[in-house]
Automatic annotation (TrEMBL):
Stated name of the protein: Doublecortin domain-containing protein 2B
CDD domains: DCX1_DCDC2B
Gene3D superfamilies found in the cross-reference section: Doublecortin domain
Residues spanning the membrane: none
Annotated source species: Eudyptes sclateri (Erect-crested penguin)
Organism superkingdom: Eukaryota
Length: 238
């Protein structure tokens, strides 16, 4: 058979999908492979599982104007979409999730929990503005989701000068990680050893949020962290 007679499959596309009406959901990367998904409905079923939607996803919309995507072939590589059931599209600032100026309230432990689920100290804004975390006694860790090789790690800014309540940290990780298994019950290093307290966290290190299931040893860092050395520590900061 000549090369002209060969039917080449369309190349795979990478898209990011948000949950309709959820301002806290950071979006999940989904690979659109038309060899795997023969129909648009099959792809929507995969999206339902990937974003942990409470109801089956039946519609995709563009995030800015809410234009409905009707076919698998209409999806564009590198673009963002909003997944919904049969409800109407809810217009939110999906694309800027995680880049807004963080706001929160102080809890009884002296920490602030932002509306996006990030845990940070009262001097968090000062750390960002000066760029000198060591001088101000604050530091960053990055956290992967156990078994998830589609979502990048999320930042965990902490203060060395503020006492850290471990239960409060796990509660914040639960909200931010949104694990399929439920609540975050432990934090592990990349080698699988468990962190038992906040004093063991190291500035710039990477950790994995784990629920009731066992730690899954996967190449999180190799696959989800940009290879540029400058980006390895600063890629998630505005």
């Amino acid at each position: 058979m000549s090369s002209r007679g060969l039917a080449l499959a369309p190349p795979a596309k990478n898209v990011v999908v948000y949950r309709n009406g959820d301002p806290f959901f950071p979006g999940r990367k989904v690979v659109v492979n038309q060899r795997r998904f023969l129909t648009f409905e099959a792809f929507l079923n995969e999206v339902t599982k990937s974003i942990h939607a409470p109801l089956a996803v039946r519609n995709l919309y563009t995030p800015r104007h809410g234009h409905r995507v009707a076919e698998l072939g209409d999806l564009q590589d590198g673009c963002h979409y909003v997944a919904a059931g049969f409800e109407k599209f809810k217009k939110l600032n999906y694309l800027n999730h995680g880049r807004k100026e963080l706001r929160g309230t102080r809890n009884s432990e002296g920490l602030q929990v932002s509306t996006s689920g990030w845990l940070f100290s009262p001097i968090f804004h000062s750390c960002r503005n000066t760029g000198s975390s060591h001088a101000l006694g604050c530091f960053y860790c990055s956290v992967f989701r156990n078994g998830d090789l589609l979502s990048p790690p999320f930042p965990l800014p902490l203060s060395k000068s503020t006492p850290l309540q471990w239960d409060a940290l796990l509660a914040t990780l639960t909200e931010k990680a949104n694990l399929r298994s439920g609540a975050v019950n432990k934090l592990c290093r990349l080698d699988g050893t468990q962190v038992s307290g906040g004093e063991e966290l190291v500035n710039g290190d990477y950790y994995v949020a784990v629920g009731n299931e066992e730690y899954k040893k996967l190449p999180y860092f190799e696959l989800l962290v940009p290879q540029d050395s400058a980006c390895r520590t600063l890629w998630y900061v505005d």
